[in-house]
Amino acid sequence: MGSIALAEVWDKTQTAPTQNLGTLLSQSASQHANRTALVSLHQHSSDKEGGTSPISWTYAQLHEASLGLAHQLSANGVASGSRIGTILFNQIEWALMFWATAHLGCQFIGIDYRAVSHKDHARDLLESVLCDVIVASSNKLALAVDEALGQKAPIKNRYVVESSQTPGWKTLAELSENATENVTKPMVSPNNPEETAVIFFTSGTTGTSKACPHSAVTLYSVARGLSKAHAITRDHTICQHLPGFHIFSVVYSLTAWLQGASLVFPNPTFDADCSIRAIQQSRNVVLPCVPLMIQAIARSPIRPPRFETLETVTIGGSTVFPELLELCASLGPKRLAAGYGMSESLVVTTHNQKTEDALTGGEDVCLGTAVSGACIRICQPGSRTLLSRGEIGEVHLGGLPVFGGYLGLEHESCYRKDGANFVVSGDQGYLDEQGRLYVLGRYKDLIIRGGENISPSRIERVLSHETGITAQVVGVPDTVAGEAIVAIIRRDSGIELPHDELRNIVSKSLGPQLSPSMIFDLTGDLGHKNFPMTPSGKPQKATLRQWTLEHIKKTNSCQSNHAESSIESQLTEIWSSLTGRSAASISPDMSIHTFTDSMTLIQFCSAVFERYQKSLTVKDLGEFKTVRSQAMLLEGRQKMETGSDKTQDMNSAAPPPWRELPENRQQVLRIKQAAMGRLNSMGFDWGDVEDVYPKNDIIGPMARGARPNSWNHRHSVIVRNCDQARITAALHTWATKHPLMRSITVSDEQNDFYIIMPARQSWLCHQICHGESIDNAEDTLTYRFNEPEWDHVAPPGPFFKVTILPINNTPDIGLIFHWHHVIFDGVIIRQWYRELGQIVKSRQLSTGFHPFQRYSVALNRRMRNVAAQHAIDHHVQALRGISEARDYLWPPQRVPLWLKGDDSGWKYPDGRLGEPGLRTPLDGKYAIGTMGLEYAISVPQILGLRERFEIPPPIVAKGACVLLNMHLTGGEEAILVTNESGRSWPFVDSAAGDEGKSDQSEDNGEGVNPLSIDGPTVTLAVSRTRLLGDETVVQFLARLLQEQHVIEQHSHAPIAKIIDRLESSPGGASPTSRADADVVRSILNRQVFDWLPDISSTQSTAAEAGQETSAGDPASVEMLEVLSRTDLGFVWYPSLKEADTTLKLNTTWDDAQMHATEVSHAMKGFLSAVAWLSKSENWERPARECRFETEDEITDVGPEKCYRR
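== AMP-dependent synthetase/ligase domain-containing protein ==
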């Protein structure tokens, strides 16, 4: 296996200077004496013709004037090492003070002229550096300094550029006029390049600015690095419109002066029109900008289509996106450059390329590799542990450009390594294989919603690019989702788009889970004209978040004056948070079923309990459909006592072990006796067992399949940019968190049980294994494929195994997972894989999994209560006489059993070995039933059925399946087995009546989000459906919806007990009852309808396993293939992403029962039926007129890389 490059790159080409800053500037002035050093277009002097023209100084003039100023300052007691604070605009005097300070060997301090208007902030800044000299551009600024510090502050020398009208301040002109005759004599200052030469302040995005001292070493290194990277020569002009107190400005000014180039000040402060004129009047222009500057220049009405004199646009100061590069390119530069740096590190990377080449990248913008003697490292967040190239982590910066620490402040982000200074940036990024840096955003700005890290910049980009609206996105606390996404917009161009339309734009681009829950207008709602910005143009998210919270608090305070609507508004906000719809669009009297799905209902009930400590059930929401009725119902419900022992027990993360409960003592002894043989064979004893859980009725029989690999899944996975040690550690962490991954099974005389083994290496070594290296990712698909003793997991367990396969000459790892369905279902495994991706990426983990033991114990205890008996009775009544409809079963059975995938070693139910060759794939070597087919069709009106009639897409799909079954069999009814998620607490629904409720001392599941139950809750239901006369499409689908509600109400009914009671019948077993039971047994594995819900819309699963594979997404978990070896004949798997209108249909089947051509024909009939049912012109037509051919395009999209049965 090839070595994996670590995420570290160091520019070793740059060497540190041996002279101080004053000497370096003097040498440049001597070399370029007669060239133009500085032009200030907004300052004028008299010319020879008696007019005025912009001030323009040569290097000799600038050098001479600054030396004279330095001598006069020296005469006034300013010595080497003194601190000279400057509050100056972009003007000649700024350059004079910078050069003079360098000549003196003093420390130049740039202070934001905007900061001094804030008295407390100004005092903090000035007191942190204790200036000996202070120079201000105006009397107004001078007065602000006095107000902040007081006139008696120990600053001996105070100077103002304009005529002084402030007591205690002298004019800078007066100081220059008093210069001695020896103005050209060089200053004698210490020649130590490591002494502090300048001090910058951090941008203060968190509200506190810190002082960053820099030396000639850091400044010269960066200036030389930039001049080499951008090929800046004496023939270039730097258009300097960046503020002189910012590091980005100073390093570009110094770069120009050390190269003999010209520096142009267009205006005292940035003005887009002035910058445009400066570009047009200059030649070979290099334009350093922050994003806001580029946007202002591009939008200016006087900008030309292209700037003929523009050589290079350099963008920095904030996260750079492709859209910003496109905007830069629209100005017509020959080259584009993106760079990265901080006040602490100056500029450490830059990427200069031809404009046309810069626009060919991906979603992430390359910021180049290390320059200026810098080192870039990518480490695990919160540590100094180096990651591999391609892995996303925290950016650490070191080397020559990096300062030695904050002034007067020890900070954990600063450290020394390998003889160099380093600083932790707080930025999220990665290095690619070539060592080039990509920065994705600030860690502190990430929004944590539902356990997922959401980058605000993604949402901001969509809003800006698609609408032209300037937007900033922040997260605010939300009891439902953790944090709610809030967009604050500023309508710069007068664009008036409704908030719902803005949400829809985000939803279509990024998915509904990233759609803002709230949108506020910066001026109209928050009362501010401009976004809070740092001097470098970075948004101050902390300030913006505070503005937002204050507005929300104020709004809520106003609403609290209307007590009768307060609960309504709170419930509306919960629905808004879960669905991404605006609260304003959710009327208190509209049905929530017009915009929600079943998973959202579950989430809502969980959120309501968390907020109010009162219970609502999904059944309640079926009856109380509006927010108003839900609020009234909730007000009448009794609140649980949150301090009670019962509540504390329910909310505990670790319920008492089932095996230690006194009532289970005898049963545990039987389980122990049954388990000891298996435990001893693996070197374990009963004392090693962590716990015991009862299995549910559906899961138990899966451990007794018809072949060794029954109910198995084989998943081929690639983990990009991850080494063996890291993935091994991640898998150990993963398996430790989820007890069922460490389970085996055992049975006593009556029941099946999980035995949970310890999270120790001695056990996990049986489950986390290392295999041989492979040549490429695709080799995972064939690695030891169908080897009888290896390619499966089997009872009694373990039921989870992963094999780690290094991929030669790559930084990637192949994984082959073997899963048995006794420990997972479709809802939980997607969450498990999502969590594995988080662990690998060292992201914050979701802690929302709820112990499966609690659910399992509750289900086992309640199997004998009245509600359970009602559920069994319901199903028995519905299934009586089913044997008379045996001719209506589809698909037809050609050979014994229903088995997907390799069926080696199959047996009949009575234990007889199956005949070799009897179960032969009908398509021979071209059999694809295990991989399956996947088609898609656009159904643009399908959501209209939900909006108008509360009929959700899954019911439309089930209706199509019902009608197709009747069409294919010619029968009067359709018999389907449906997979139900079972994501509800068993047998506590109020429909059973008071007599059906459990004893109040039992666990009723209050406060549990059923989606987070950490194991399989899936159940089966057999449904029989007929058409009633000429009922219309809407009537037919509405009836299916009502039947589905009943099925869900009784979804936990144990199928084995249903069959037993069906067979026994009230008067004892009879030929008919036995026939009914036999038919039910025979169809459980024949045809299954499985609508797996889109939990991403309610769980914020921003990326499932198999979908975290975008370019530049290092250490991502990529699903290559899913092979399902379940004991099933045919599985329909339709799916529709929330707010999407393209329905996808995946099917898998038993190759010994069906040809692929038969399956393809059935799938096209299914999709044609869905399309016909979805069209509004058919809604009032009889459902029996449904068509199974369509002119709409059906696309073969191939199996999608996500979970499927």
